[in-house]
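Issue 218. Parser rejects a valid record. Input:
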Amino acid sequence: MTVCIIGLGLIGGSIGLELKTKRFSDRVIGVEKNPVYAQIALERGLVDEVTKLVEGIQQADLIILAIPVDGILSLLPFVLDYVTHQAVTDVGSTKMSIAEMVKDHPKRSNYVPSHPMAGTEFSGPEAAISGLFNKKVGIICDMALSNPKALESITNLYMALNMRLIFMSSKEHDLHTAYVSHISHLTSFALALTVLDKEQNEKNILNLASGGFDSTVRLAASSADMWVPVFDQNRENVVEVMNTYIEKMTLIKDLIQAGETNKVRDLIKKANIIQKTLKLNPWNQK
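Output the parser choked on:
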């Protein structure tokens, strides 16, 4: 099998590294418009070669779009125009707008929308690491619209990455990821901006930052080029989740302001349940 990875950043580069390590494919071709990224990917052995887009598509058996979701939206129809037998997937953090874009494409059945729920706050081929996907969740969407051969290819891909597969619709995906992923990044961005704004006058704030602060704002280092299109394409769900979040923050603020310590304590205890819930989830078992 020959795999073509379009976009050699964190996710695309890590997939290439993993597929070569596990001998899932005989050959991994990269397509990358950034010449510096392309050179780094070659030097690190993330791919066997870097080629032009159409050449990569035509030589591949399986094609992975690992670029920001606005790029996927514009590029996917072009990729499908050139496929014959190839299976095509993308690894974007949104699904509905992308699936809608190609719903009437004559090669739609060659396409399998997917999303590996894995990543870090870093970007670029330098950030690619082995084991990034190990035991993480891989989501495959709208499986009934993909042909069996393409679906099998993408399923095998995620199994080779040692991911746990979940199947759902694109609509369900975008709703669920708004709650568990997109809001996490937004709150991290907001907290970082809050602290940076205050830190202009109080230099000791960052000197006092500890592990808890680091873990909370870690995602604030994430790429704007990646996340702005995600928020835009999933804006309805994202705004809904943000409104709920703001309601909870306002409630806690009002209780603190009123000195309602028992009610604040009750809310914190209620929030504590989330860790127990996560540990009981079979998908989170080691």
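Fixed in the parser; the record now loads. The domain at 173-284 is CATH 1.10.3660.10 (6-phosphogluconate dehydrogenase C-terminal fold).
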